[in-house]
Amino acid sequence: MGPSGSGKTTLLDVLAMRKTAGTVSGEVRFGRDKPTAAFLRRYTGYVEQCDTLIPNLTVAETLMYTAEVRLRVCVCVICLCHLGGAGAQLPR
Questions:
Q1: What is the pLDDT of residue 88?
Q2: Which residues contact residue 50 at a Cβ distance below 8 angstroms, ignoring those fewer than 6 apart?
Q3: Are 19 and 10 in contact (CB under 8 A)?
């Protein structure tokens, strides 16, 4: 990804609209649209650099655990639909 100090965290902070120091120029767009704070909360997750992770979990298990904590109801519905087979649909 790049050596220390090359701007990886700064880039992610700008994309997540979390940059609080310095000057940011230009625009961040998802597709053709400028993301709103509500859009970012709904469709993205941000893990801090110093976040504590559970060492016994795989990457996939860690992502699932984080999703379950953040989106308890949604994940349960998605899991139930997945278990229901190809014909299962999410409730509206």
A1: 47
A2: none
A3: yes
Q: Where are the domains of the chain?
A: 1-50, 52-92
Q: Taking a C-beta distance cutoff of 8 angstroms, is the pair 47, 66 a contact?
A: yes
The whole-model pTM stands at 0.51
Closest CA to 75 of 55, 46, 45: 45
What are the distances in angstroms from CA 57 to CA 2, 62, 67, 76? 26, 6, 14, 20
pLDDT in tens, 38-80: 888 777 777 776 667 788 988 888 878 877 777 655 545 555 5
Residues near 17 by Cβ (< 8 Å), separated by ≥ 6? 28, 35, 37, 40
**Amino acid type, 34:** K
Give the residue from 14, 21, 79, 65 showing the smallest Cα distance to 40: 14
